[in-house]
Amino acid sequence: MSVGGAGGRGGAGRADGGPGEGSLVLVLNAGSSSLKAQLLDAAGRPLWKGQTDWQPNVSAAQASVGAPSPAEAVLRDWLLPAIAPWTQAVALVGHRVVHGGTAFTAPTRLTAEVRAQLAELTPLAPLHNGPALAVIDALSRWQPDLPQWACFDTAFHHTLPPEAFTYAIPTAWRQQGLRRYGFHGLNHQHVSEVVRVPRLISCHLGAGCSLCAIADGRSIATTMGFTPLEGLVMASRCGSVDPGLLLHLLRQGIPIEQLDHELNHGSGLLGLSAGFSASMKDLREAAAKGHEGAILAIAVFRHGLLQAIGAMAASLGGVDVIALTGGIGEHDEALRQELAAALAWLAPFELVVVPADEEGLIARQCCTALGLV
């Protein structure tokens, strides 16, 4: 079963509708290698959307003297020309900010004070919070009076109980804020608003993967932790591993920078398939032809996913609906069939597909906060 969301995904495109049609929201999702943008009305319906590659983490030494910053360049050369027909109708900009820490648990108007607080959180999510702040700053220079808001991937998980977010580590470490934060909260919240049942397991399965146990609309358990590395096997991220394994590698002399790179970019499906591919679609095709690495990658991914679904069900005391979302969750029919068969012991429950729509949720949240709806 597929449950529709507010608008689909894809490359750049324009739906019916032109400039001046009410208050519009520009939603920006700044990542470490791409910038995604959507222009939506106050109800979350997309008028335009696009994506471009960029390199936001260019050092000062690499940048040409007098050249615009990566954020300024991508706005000037791509975003502003693309939204030119609607510029006068843009009422606000909503940003996806990955890490809000414990302070930011709701859509927040960006002020100088808030921007400074977010900068302090950048070390917790350097690949995402840094680029988001760079875009925020560039937009402020372009249009200082345009309201900008931040919506946080961690915010939905602020309802986690202490037993779910606390690590069994020394008190002094916990006092530093070392705890489970959880991520993908914007999409997990979107799923919870589409599928309104008492006991829901939201499965965000894409390049990044996480599960969320949602009880009556509230997050009570999730698989990602202090960083987005914990939990499920992902495209190139390792998911949960024994911390002792990492200590072993450090004692062998592996540099921290290399360890960081391999855990984030050389592990997961890519590492399991011996570097063949991080794409589940590619792995399915190769596995059908007998590729051993692809077969192993799919099996390890499925094994961990099933275990985690069982853990989420235990947290909920059962499950009414399991919702699949994200690139893998929405498009891998074989996985849906495998899950339906392997989870028969959990029955009765309904297995549904919910198209991801973080941008639509951001638009709705910001418009509600600003009183536009």
Notes on the structure:
38% of the residues lie in helices and 18% in strands. The chain contains 14 helices and twelve strands. The protein has helices at residues 70-82, 112-121, 129-142, 162-165, 171-174, 185-194, 243-251, 256-265, 268-272, 280-288, 292-316, 326-331, 333-342, 358-370; strands spanning 13-14, 24-30, 34-41, 46-53, 90-97, 108-109, 148-152, 199-205, 209-215, 218-222, 321-325, 350-353. The strands form two sheets. Strands 1-4-3-2-5-7-6 form a seven-stranded mixed sheet, with helices on both faces. It has a five-stranded mixed sheet with strand order 10-9-8-11-12, with helices on both faces.
Task: Please summarize the sheet with the most strands.
Answer: 7 strands, mixed
Q: What count of domains describes the coordinates? A: 2
Radius of gyration from the alpha-carbon trace, in angstroms: 21 Å
What is the 3D shape?
A: globular
Number of strands: 12
Structural class label: alpha/beta
- Spans where pLDDT lies below 50 across 5 or more residues: 5-21, 59-63
CATH superfamily of the largest domain: ATPase, nucleotide binding domain
CATH class category of the largest domain: Alpha Beta
What distance separates the N and C termini?
A: 31 Å
| Element-level helix/strand string | EEEEHEEHHEHHHEEEHHHHHEHHEH
Percent strand: 15-25%
